[in-house]
Structure formats: C-alpha cells, structure tokens
Design goal:
The complex is a heterodimer.
Chain A lengths: L3 E2 L4 E5 L4 E7 L6 E7 L6 E7 L4 E4 L2 E6 L4 E6 L8 E8 L8 E3 L3 E6 L1
Parallel strand pairs in A: 2-11
Antiparallel strand pairs in A: 1-3, 3-8, 4-5, 4-9, 6-7, 7-8, 9-10, 9-11
Chain B lengths: L3 E3 L3 E4 L5 E7 L5 E8 L3 E8 L6 E2 L6 E7 L2 E6 L8 E8 L10 E2 L3 E5 L1
Parallel strand pairs in B: 2-11
Antiparallel strand pairs in B: 1-3, 3-8, 4-5, 4-9, 5-6, 7-8, 9-10, 9-11
The chains are: A mainly beta, B mainly beta.
Chain lengths: 114, 115
C-alpha cells in the first residue's frame, strides 16, 4: 500500500517557466514532508521541507505548498532552469521521534529544455 | 559539509556470494539507513540503525542483514546474493532529533549487479 504517491512519472517544462511537481499521501500521521532531488549516478540531495503547521515554505526558486485537508503537497520551481533536470522525490515523516523514518514516493523525472 | 561515503560505486558479484556494502559518515549522526532504488519503485528502506549495535527492519529486509559496530559505520550484508538483488543501494545518515525535520544525507550509491 503506497502511502506517498507521485502520480506523474515525468514532466517536461521549458526553461524560464514554472515547474509544478505534485505529491499525495494517505497516512494522516505524517507531519513533516521533504523534497529531494537526484541526478543520475549521485545520491539524493535534500531540497526543501515543510512541517504540518505551515502551508508554505519558500527557499529561493523553490516553494513547497502543503494542503493537509487534501493530503497533498506540491513543489514549485520558478523559473525553471536546465540544471533542474533531475528526478524529484517526495518524502514524509511520521513524527518528531528521532527513530521515525522517511517514506518516499516513486519520484518524478523533470526535464527542463532550453 | 556532511559526507556519507559508500565504499564502492560499482560492484559485480555472483549468485550465492556473500556481499558486503560499507558506508561511513563523518558527521557524528546517530541514525543510519540503507535503501535500495529501483526504476519505478522509488527508494525503499531495507534496514536502519539509531545507535551502535542497534538495528531495525525497514520495509524490505528479507535477504539482507546489517552491522553497526561503530557509530560512523553501517554495513549492509547480502547473505546469499540473488539476481533480484541487483539494484542501486543508497546509504543515508541523520541526527536523532527530528525537530524541524532534520533531513537524511545520502551517499552517492553503489550500483550492484548480481550475475
């Protein structure tokens, strides 16, 4: 049973436009959400996160929106750049316990064309 | 800067062999994790450890074991390698306190092929 879902396997966007990556979750105990970016042959790198007490978090070109009632979050990249082409993973954590783990989605491959 | 180092980038082994994947982190993190990444399946947690000599099963522990004798080192062991264990293996580490959502930091992965 998939608790974190990224329903779009891929997304193509032109340079300079907005990229919107979506993520849905089913476990209402999740209270912290993270986005990771992964280039081929490298490990995932942390991008941005949001706690359930907030509905928006912004870091430069990256903004994450959280809609708890819909159990939905999205990552907006504005403006998109060719270097943003990578696989993006959504992940969720179920508590403040140091022993909590992350549940990952299957990833969305973003391609930003010049 | 956090550094998580996996001992091999590429590894080729034969069916039935015992395989060791090593991971070392230099940030004094309490938590360490092993994942595998497969196309279309995302990252799946195999085992994790929150302290020396402690281990917990993740979502797919079958066919694997782990060892954590020192805080900075976490080893993944394939007891008898099988072809369905061909995959990208990723090690990660984090602080124990998740307040504010301390992110996990990943190594660059080991691409393991079992022939």
């Amino acid at each position: 049973d998939q608790q974190v879902k990224q329903n779009s396997p891929s997304l193509s966007v032109q340079e300079g436009r907005i990229s919107i990556l979506n993520c849905d979750y089913t476990n209402s105990m999740f209270d912290y959400f993270l986005w990771y970016k992964k280039y081929p042959a490298e490990g995932p790198t942390f991008l941005i996160s949001i706690g359930s007490i907030k509905d928006k978090n912004e870091d430069g070109r990256f903004t994450v929106f959280l809609n708890k009632s819909a159990k939905h979050l999205s990552l907006h990249i504005v403006p998109s750049q060719p270097g943003d082409s990578a696989v993006y993973f959504c992940a969720a954590s179920d508590g403040d316990s140091g022993y909590s783990t992350l549940t990952f989605g299957k990833g969305t491959m973003l391609l930003v064309s010049p | 800067d956090v550094k998580v180092t996996q001992s091999s980038r590429y590894l080729v082994k034969r069916t039935g062999e015992k395989v060791f994947l090593e991971c070392v982190q230099d940030m004094d993190h309490e938590n360490m994790f092993w994942y595998r990444q497969d196309p279309g399946l995302g990252l799946r947690l195999i085992y994790f450890s929150y302290d020396v000599k402690m281990k917990e099963k993740g979502d797919i522990p079958e066919g694997y074991s782990v060892s954590r004798e020192k805080k900075e080192r976490f080893s993944l062991i394939l007891e008898s390698a099988s072809t369905n264990q061909t995959s990208m293996y990723l090690c990660a580490s984090s602080f124990v306190e998740q307040v504010g959502g301390q992110p996990q930091h990943f190594g660059d992965g080991t691409r393991l092929s079992i022939l």
